[in-house]
Amino acid sequence: MPTIVSGTVPASDLALAYSLEQLPELQFEIERIVTSGGDALMPMLWVRGSTREEVEATLEEDPTVDRVELLGDFDDEWLFRMEWIAHIDLLIQMITNSEATVLDAVGQGDRWKLRVLYPRRSLFSKTHDFCESHGLDFDVASIRELDEEPAGRYGLTTAQYEILSEASKRGYFEVPRGVSLEELADDLDISHQAASERLRRATDALVEDALFVGFDGFD
User: Fold this and answer.
1) In angstroms, rounded to a whole number, what is the distance separating the alpha carbons of residues 116 and 126?
2) pTM for the whole thing?
């Protein structure tokens, strides 16, 4: 069964640790990542948290990076394509030997936060064994199997999916609202407080699953 694994890796075990150390406010967010030969990766990633001049100068000195190309300048963030040439053994193992897809990767401070989709849960065992044998620290925060139910695919419980689905169909998120929270609670045969908490938690889970930006709530 497809499985999503979320966790953190020290920046020293992945690329760009030098840049993150030199510019502590810097944040990298991978847009797309592909292999580039057997011992290199070529990610396309967003960079924010500093000036363009500081970013380019720091990337030039970063020993894990080569062939940096600026693709887009958007005032306070920049889209770069580059080649990672060192400290990428873990990512290569995930993508090649474990057939995984890196859904999200955000680097900030002294670590990277990853969300990785494995075709089967058993393939994650290969990554776990690889980390053990190579002294790499992949600190797993959650492992979620994707079942056939829609709730599972979006990181929601069945009850959370039910209330979000009903709220959307009934116009709860429209302006003006087509249904009140009290009416949703009555329809689902739960209390107003339970409906409020369930809707809030469902929204939080859905937003986190969709955006995966930054480290809020992960410390």
Assistant:
1) 13
2) 0.75
